[in-house]
Queue: 2 jobs
Job 1
Amino acid sequence: MEQTGPICIVDDEQSIRETLEAVLKDEGYQVVSSPNAEHFEQQLKEITPSLVLLDIWLPGRDGMSVLESLRLSHPDLPVLMMSGHAGIESAVSAIKLGARDFLEKPLHLEVILDKIATILSRKRVLVLDELPSDTRLEEAKIINRVIPEESVFLEDSEISQKTLKKNVVLNGKGLMSGRNTGVILSPLPENSGIIFRTLDGISIQGNITSLENYEHAVATHTFTANSTVLASQNRRVRTIEHLMSALNMEGITNVLVKVDEEVPNIDGSAADFCRLIQEAGVEEQNEKVKIAVVHKHIQVGLAEKDKKHLYVEPYDGFEVRMRVNYPEPILEQECVFNPEKESFIERIAPARSFNTFGNIETAQKKGTVGSGYLNSHIIIHDGKVINTDLRFEDEFVRHKILDLIGDLYLLGYPLRCRVVANMTSHGYNQALVQKLHVALHRQYPDLNPQIN
């Protein structure tokens, strides 16, 4: 144990102060306490604490104000905030102001003791700072460029093309801009495909060839993991992957997506887009869907357990196998999803985006993302989720499947294959779709980039 100064407990509830003092002293710590901000500030003139346990709700000057002052006067002093009444916004705000962590009342003494021991011994919990992150332009350098001959064929199916029965609207906040935005989904005739249209009338096909900087990505075999962005004529539509995932699994082959640059992110999942499609109703059309059937193994990356990679292989149906392995609280997670065996709406669509508080804060300071991140992500800080309860124990790997399903629909055709992925990001997903696109066009040079 390394402690150069006492632990300061600042809480107006005498019973909490006395309990914490007794427990910490039994553990061998030096401890002092204060009932309010003013008394604590007087203590600071005489002592240099090693750690502060600071309640948010104090009489007079509140704990958030005290924390803000401490960051100026004692920038390296670790602070654990405590509250029994504050919500998610307060927890995030406290950490953004520099608190080391946020503890909810009633306090769990074992948890507090573990955190204090970690902080004072300077053994920080491993921070999850390496993710296929929506906040960083991570490049997925594609090593394996080989595309086997006759690896993907189009086959007729008995499945009808589908569109929506009516127009529907969804409003929300843009992930990157943080601005209020919206999306309108409208029916389209057979053989139209997925078309995005900006407010000034520019149409962008929902196809891999419309990917932003596509020609450069193909030339350099390098795709970015930021998110999935389509572009045409100096216009772009960002964060389309969750909507595309819902369209893919709902079998929507023809739809017009009107949007002002950015598809709203809502809660970071595809659940609202599934509900939107159900609200509109699905209309079967006369033309049938063609399916892209994989006949040979196509791969991106090195197929090693500690390397990011993914591949498709022959399979009678459609199945996704995903593995991730990140520091706490994620660790190793594996999930298999087959839409013929379980419901996309129930098992995959609700899974939300995730990132670390540090990544998000850094990106916001750089101006590369907006405030939409805080309310649409599972936020991780010091090895734990700080802003929400998980919808699934393995929600993280499920969301990676959600993203992959959305990116795969950029091929313009539903797939018949098994997709196996390890730690992948949008960049790897897009690179695989580009390979599939090339394989198809070898077989069908005059093929139009749409579902027909």
Job 2
Amino acid sequence: MSALYGTYARSELAFERGEGMRLYDQHGRSYLDFHSGVAVNALGHGDAHLVTALKAAAEKVWHTANTFTIPEQERLGQRLVEASFADSVFFTNSGAEAIECAIKTARHYFWAKGQPDRYEIIAFTGSFHGRTLGTIAAGGNPDYLEGFGPAAPGFKHARPGDLDSVKALISPQSCAILIEPVQGEGGVTAMTSEFMQGLRKLCDENDMLLVLDEVQCGYGRTGRFFAYEWSGITPDIVAVAKAIGGGFPLGACLAKGDVASSMVPGTHGSTYGGNPLASAMGNAVLDRILAPGFIDHVNQMGQKLAWHLQQLAQRYPDYVLELRGKGLLAGIKITPPVRDFVSRLRDDHQMLVIGAGDNVLRLLPPLIVTEADIIEAVEKIAAAFDAIEAETASVPAVG
């Protein structure tokens, strides 16, 4: 009997070590990782630069409170500002905390302008923003809200891709629009550039803020450093996490200077957020991701993955209904139950993937993936489809 909360449907599989695209279990078996710890292990496993940085940081100062200056944090914040739209950064421990900071920043911005009634945020069905009380209210998924009392007020939900549904929700109380440029958990739905540009225009016309959740789709995963770059827009606030620490718990809320200016001492805080150890890892990850050619490689591999998945879809029209996503955040809407298919790939084909809403198989390889890895992954998925087909053919017809 485990001493842990029963909040996860855990496999008994446990891993002892990792190398590049591979994880190795307690019996030495190798698994192709297209899961990446839910998009966290952007540099794969055992990256030499990250290991060296972690060892060096561990020999210095692990933690000081944010009541002191943290040089590594200052450096990481400046680098993120230089690589993005932002002027200010707040560091957190997770994506949910980054979203909480984004929500508070947006609402406090209008409070400081003398408009305290402007606190409503328009979010979207199919979204996922975290597991805190605030972020499950923002996501609006009834399954995640059930059992936790009344949902936190101040959130309305429009349909992704439908500007008219957004317009219908705008009121004098509206302060912001919150959206994932590519929905992950909800079904790997990528927003079009036209839709993102339309949201920016609506925000400009109604004096609202555009808040992006790039916790999963940011940090190079779509083939740009941030997914918003594809649509040519400038957001007001962006939340990031997952890949930012390469496996070390870290998140961040990035904002324009005027938007963040009201967040003065006492308005927000985090004991661990951006501590010396976390910031050192954040800088080490940036060393690799912002290195010349790295994101170009991700973009190329995203195109390769899309091509090979198209071939897979043509080969298995009875099993592949739709291809979704952007770059190395790819989704395959399949006919077999996705939870069972994830288990089949893991147990029978030694490949790690993750499910998503709408019966979508989600592929999240480390950003160091090669075309050879992609071909191997697609072959494993094909083998799983073949196995299902053989099992179905062997079942005697009824009547």
